[in-house]
Design a protein that fits this description.
Largest sheet: 9 strands, mixed
Helix content: 25-40%
Structural class: alpha/beta
Number of helices: 13
Bound molecules: ligand LLP
Number of strands: 18
Radius of gyration: 24 Å
Shape: globular
Distance between the termini: 64 Å
Length: 448
């Protein structure tokens, strides 16, 4: 008993005790061969994000195909926060996607790329006046998150004498069974208007009473990296009940119901994906009979990020050195949580490959170059022993990789390339020292 309690203490205390068997080493880097990736690393240098444009296109078509088999009226808005590179957003726009945006910067990006206002959804829990003016002036659909939001939109729309198109984000209080940092639809989260105390009904009543606000939809997003259908089905049930009340009690007929993003991807070898066709079928089994009883069918809006772009991305980095100690053997690389924050922030797992090597497989920690003990990109990984200068590939980094990168420790931000068929485009240059110094001002008396 004492021993098991002590073990639990070690694990909870975050001590680097080996808690589970390491996964066997596979060398596959998906569509790209080791040689191809090594050639990209040589040509563009590392750290480098490589994206497979054909896979992004395929994922979009799989998702759209799966859902349109169930729902006639479907709109997919790409959650651009997952990967904000304009080439990636444009590629998805070409496929027919709209854009789900979170800030003035993302809205301006979508407008610059030619998205129509009605194909952009603006979801944020803290919208500024400038962002709301931009949204209203461009006919962007504003997803309201609080009563404060409702007041601001009513006021600004009246001032601009322009009708605001809105939806309300509900907090459905559904547990998506995912990491707590990316679980958004539980009642203690900062997002959405609570169903409790009839708050969402009150929100719609207030909106309906305003001549400057047009009701377009109802929105939900329960969380991210979800690999089971059940939370989505449960959420659909909550939405349906509410759509019925809106019609019965307030005579409101919605243009759309947004089921959110959140479809996960398998980050581990052998993990099962959540197939959109199967998921759509299950969600349709909840929604369709309800819509029939309702007497109308709203459009279905989805806002995936990760599903579309995560597995298309590979972060290439160079091995600086191998450091063996009596306790842990490290592979030191020239990237870290400044470029890929997911491992340290969510204890996220990304598969790592050593390109061009297969010999002497042993246990390593892949250590980033950031000056923090926690900067380990992969703990306890069985890997072939690399040599200095080798390239490693960190897989499934197309979503929330570059878009969460920072300039911490004054390293450059990586370059990004997009590969479609045989065509390779540089879609972002590596930053340089000029970028690092650009916005800093040295007062005259502190100049060297
Ligand atoms: N819609 C809303 C309102 C969201 O907040 C998000 C993601 C999405 C859609 C897209 O969710 P997805 O389909 O990508 O799961 N940085 C974290 C994920 C944060 C998700 C934030 N919101 C990670 O690296 O796991």
């Amino acid at each position: 008993m004492l021993i098991s309690l002590l073990c639990m203490f070690w694990v909870w205390g975050g001590d680097p005790v080996k808690s589970s068997e390491p996964e066997p080493y596979h060398s596959s880097t998906g569509r790209f061969s080791h040689e191809q990736l090594q050639a990209y690393a040589k040509q563009y240098q590392t750290p480098l994000y490589v994206y497979d444009g054909d896979l992004i296109q395929k994922k979009y078509r799989t998702l759209a195909g799966g859902y349109s088999a169930q729902f006639d009226q479907l709109k997919i808005l790409y959650a651009v926060k997952a990967n904000t590179n304009m080439a990636i957003i444009s590629l998805l726009k070409k496929e027919g996607a709209g854009a789900e945006c979170i800030s003035g910067g993302e809205l301006q990006t979508a407008l610059k790329l030619g998205f129509r206002g009605e194909d952009i959804l603006f979801t944020s829990s803290a919208k500024t006046r400038e962002e709301l003016v931009l949204a209203i002036n461009n006919g962007i659909v504003i997803n309201l998150d609080s009563f404060g939001d409702i007041d601001h939109v009513k006021k600004i729309a009246a001032e601009l004498k322009k009708k605001a198109r809105v939806s309300v984000r509900i907090n459905p209080d559904v547990d998506p069974h995912t990491h707590r940092f990316i679980s958004t639809g539980h009642k203690f989260s900062k997002f959405g208007v609570l169903l409790e105390e009839d708050q969402v009904m009150d929100a719609y009543k207030q909106i309906k009473a305003s001549e400057w606000v047009e009701i377009w939809g109802l929105h939900s997003h329960i969380g991210s990296q979800i690999l089971e259908a059940q939370p989505f089905e449960q959420n659909a049930g909550v939405l349906l009940k509410f759509i019925k009340r809106l019609k019965d009690e307030l005579g409101i007929q919605l243009k759309f119901v947004d089921l959110g993003g959140g479809i996960g991807i398998p980050y581990h070898d052998g993990q099962d994906p959540l197939e959109p066709a199967a998921l759509a079928k299950k969600v349709a089994e909840v929604l369709k009979p309800g819509f029939e009883m309702l007497g109308y069918t709203p459009e279905i809006w989805l806002e995936p990020g990760r599903y579309l772009v995560a597995d298309s991305g590979i972060l290439l980095a160079s091995v600086i050195s191998v450091k063996d100690t009596p306790y842990t053997d490290f592979v030191n690389v020239n990237t870290g949580f400044n470029h890929l924050v997911r491992p340290i922030l969510y204890e996220a797992y990304h598969r790592i490959r050593v390109l061009g090597r297969s010999e002497d497989v042993r246990l390593f920690d892949v250590a980033g170059n950031i000056c923090e003990t926690g900067d380990i990109l992969g703990h306890d990984r069985l890997l072939p022993t690399p040599k200095d200068g080798d390239t490693i590939a960190i897989l499934d980094t197309g979503a929330y990789g570059f878009s969460m990168a920072s300039a911490y420790n004054s390293f450059d931000l990586p370059a990004e390339i997009l590969v479609r068929g045989d065509k390779v485009d540089l879609i972002r240059e590596r930053t340089n020292l000029e970028d690092l110094f650009r916005h800093q001002k040295l007062p005259a008396d502190l100049k060297p």
